[in-house]
Amino acid sequence: MFKRIVKYSKSRSFFLFGARATGKSTLLRSLFTEDSSLYIDLLDPVIDDRLANNPAELISIINAHSDKKWIIIDEIQRIPKLLDVVHQLSADKSLKFALTGSSARKLKRGQANLLAGRAFNYACYPLCYEEIAEQFALDDVLQFGALPEILSLTVEDKKDFLRAYVDTYFKDEIVSEQIVRKLRPFKNFLSVAAQMNGKILNIKQIANDVGVDHSTVVNYFEILEDTLVGFLLEPFHLSLRKRQRQASKFFYFDIGVTNALQKTLDNIPTPATFAYGKSFEHFIILELKRLAGYKKPDWTFSYLMTKDNVEIDLIIERPGQPLVAIEIKSTTNINSIDKSSITAFSKLTAELKNSETYIISQDPIEQKIDHISYLPWQQAIKKIGL
Q1: Structural domains in the chain?
Q2: Is 361:331 a contact under the CB 8 Å cutoff?
């Protein structure tokens, strides 16, 4: 059992959204005792069938357990009509609901009752370094990711788990809920998106590769964001209008899932290679995004690429604080970095007013040269405020 960072309200009902296997159900079972809560699992076909045919039956189930103050409904998106009943029952101030699901996309598209502000929204992600604690092994995470179940498996079982995940999860979660109706082009898109992971997107080229139109690809990326299996990293610009005119980068929510889609699970991470560097960058961005999602949800993440191809890997805008500019290097010796790239990065970040600038890596030695702080990645996370 991992001690999760995600916090929840003890006084208000809430939704807990997250991709399959991120540990939502396990988390709620650990938070609520059997004495105080009623657990309703919509993945149970008997329960699912009973409530799908008559959502009002939920009232009878809850009335039969009148001593329970918390009602946990797992996979609420399977029966959106239940939310009308939950809304009705939530008028009873002594009754609270914890509702889990893969995303709010199906609920919103079906114009489901999202409880009109009576419930808070939380997210559950794969494990962070802080949650894995003493079991953390960077190279394992770079190869197999950080879904909770992964950490207890053998190497071969990890591979089988991730292959099964990408083969079945999207079909079960995406197609069965009619988010997309044609599976083959969407599955082709998932693989292409994995190849584009961490790169600036060319939507037209992706559409040509998948064999669909431009608007369909845009919709596919929206699906991945809405179901929390990926996110877009927008280009930075102080002008929101100009920011929207530039192309975003895309990142999957887990490195192991990305490797499974790329069919590279057998590739052992090898330091000082291009692939290792990209995986390490992916890991750092995921780590910061997850921690900010739990602790600093108002922070904004972006990247910056100039017309001269000088790049800042990550920019974090923190309300009321200096923005953070980050370059990510996988090296264990910061002195081995190409000096010209450091010079270009230094000049670019010097133009950002009221900012903190970091080059973060696996080098354990902390130092500061001019306006740039060189930090080991664990220390950098704390320094940034997470």
Answers
A1: 13-123 (3.40.50.300), 129-223+252-262 (no CATH), 296-384 (3.40.1350)
A2: yes
Nearest to 247 by CA among 297, 211, 196, 285: 196
Distance of CA 325 to the CA centre of its chain: 21
Select from 288, 342, 284 the least CA-distant residue to 316.
Answer: 288
Neighbours of 138 (CB within 10 A): 15
Q: How many CB atoms sit inside 10 A of residue 81's CB? A: 16
Do the beta carbons of residue 306 and residue 277 sit within 8 Å? no
Query: What is the DSSP secondary-structure string of 195-243?
Result: HTTTSB--HHHHHHHHTS-HHHHHHHHHHHHHTTSEEEEEEP-SSHHHH
* Cβ count near 216 (within 10 Å): 17
Q: Report d(CA 220, CA 307) in Å as an integer.
A: 28
User: Rounded to whole angstroms, how far apart are CA atoms 313 and 305?
Assistant: 8
Contact residues for 42 (Cβ-Cβ < 8 A; gap 6+): 48, 51, 73, 74, 75, 76, 78, 79
- Cα distance between residue 75 and residue 101, in whole Å: 4
**Interval 97-115: pLDDT, tens:** 999 988 777 676 654 566 7
Q: Is 15 helix (H, G, I), strand (E, B) or coil?
A: strand
Give the DSSP per-residue string, 62-127.
HHTTTT-SEEEEETGGG-TTHHHHHHHHTTSTT-EEEEEES-SHHHHHTT---GGGSEEEEE--SP
pLDDT tens digits, residue range 194-247?
999 999 999 999 999 999 999 999 989 998 898 899 999 999 986 656 655 689
